[in-house]
Structures are given as structure tokens and as C-alpha cells.
Hints:
- The chain is mainly beta.
- It is built from 3 helices and 23 strands.
- A 4-stranded antiparallel sheet has the order 5-6-7-8. A 4-stranded antiparallel sheet has the order 9-10-11-12.
- The longest helix is centred in the middle third of the chain and has 17 residues, at 174-190.
Amino acid sequence: ALVFGPQGREVTRIGGLGEGPGEFTPQGISTVVATDATLVVPDIQLQRVTRFTLEGQLLDSEDLAAAAGPEGGVFGVGWQAHPQGGLVLLELSPRGQQVLRFLDGELESLHTFDLPPPEPNQILPPSPVWAMDPEARLLVGRTDRAEVSLIAREGDDPIWTARWPDREGTELSSQEEEHLEELVAESAQARGMPPVSVTLPGEAPILAGALAHPEGGVWVQRARPVSEMGLSALQVGGTEGFGGQIWDVLDSQGRGVEAVRLPLGFLPRSFGPAEAGGQSCLYGILEDDVGIRTARRVCPQEGR
């Protein structure tokens, strides 16, 4: 794994290919989580989490399969540091989709999403939207609903709920259905497989993602129009392909502040230190038209 600094220069390299100490399988890595003192790398295929110093020295590893117990392994996405220690992730499993905390070799459920069971070969299924704020509270929502809520603990009443009722219930047009079917056929052709029958969504996704601001408040990503979606929208277990350019900025009370437009193909991961003028920049990945990804910093004033 390569680690880059704020200016885009390579800082260090960690690990290598393999299954030994400090090594990874390319199919098992989706992210590297940076804390104040360590770099943490989950490897889903090897079912372990490995920690390094910021200079790339191996510290230790923890067994995800052992933490999961007899229920089986953990398939997690959206890994990030928990403000009070450990990691937080979205687990995808037949038992349901839930936000888990992984700390000291143990898994704790923080929130379980109320989602309908997916239909066979369903594309653009209702999926979780979530983020954890600096106070370890969870913003939770669904891609098919025009609302998000901030909760302190599962089962508690929401601290606040933000809604956009004017975006509810947009049925797919025949042109949008044809576009999705063409994407499915293109995907099958690229893999050398015959086209498969799929279940189309009844309505277009409304939301796609969320990101907590370190100083309070959250950013909520609107879904892009279905007619503009590409092959990434067909990926199983994630909503990055749903995402559009426009993010709604909410303050610490859930009130709308503004809408920000980010560059097409930019996948923000975290906020960086504030620049001159008090604006925080976003760090993430920019994906071009052919799927090549590069590290990128975007400041809000550049993306409006």
C-alpha cells in the first residue's frame, strides 16, 4: 500500500503481497485507515486487521474471523477510525447490514439498518447511508428515502432528522430502464458472459452517501440521475456508483446550510485541515472515465 502526504507526494510504502505478517491480498483490501499514530489495514480475504506505524513498521494484527465467532467471517466496507478507539465499519451479510465497532479483537453492533431483502439480481437496491461524527454519533439513512437521522445509540429517538420531501418517489422512466439494461448487457459483455435477467428498481435512488465534518455537521450526497450512471452503479455492496456531484451541507442541528458541487468522479474520504479563509479541504479519490483512480484534494470553493 502507498501512503501519500497532503501535497500528493509518496510518504511511505507498507506491507507487500502475500499472506505472511504485514502482507496483504489485493482482493481483500479496500481501504487504509489512518489514526493519530498508526495506519490500519483491513484485509477481508485474510480476515485480519494489521496495524503499522506511520513510518510503515509492522506493529500487530487482529483476527476478524475470531471476532465474528461461529456466525462466520466479516465482509466490511466503509472502514474508518472510531473517535473513541478501534474501527467502525459497515458489515454486509445475509443477516442484514449493520454498523459495527471493532475494538480489542471484539465486534460490537452499533446500528442495524431496516432494509427489505434484495430481489434476485436486483440493481440499485435500497442501501445504507451512514457516517460517524466526532462524538461517535451515527448519521443513518437509506438510498431510497429522502431523509437522514442523527442518533446517539441504537433504539434511542433521533437527535434530529433532516428531510427533503420534494425528492421522494421518482419513478424510473422507460429511457432510464433501458439505460440500466444497457449497462447490464455491457457489464456481461466485458466479462465474456451472456446477459442475465435483473430486477430493476421501482424508483430512482435519492441519496448515495454521507460524510461527517470534524467541526460538526454532515455532508449528504445526492444520487446522480439514473440516465447518467455508469457501470460502477452495478457494483454489489456499495453505493459509490449511485453518487452525484451535489452534496447537501447540514449544520450540527441538521439544518440545511448550502449545496456544494464537487468534481465529477470525485469520491471524498475525509476532511483535511482548514485552509486560509477557514475552509476545510476534502481528500479522496478521483476516478476518470476509464476507471483510473488518483489521490486528489478538493477545496469546497473549487467545487461549487
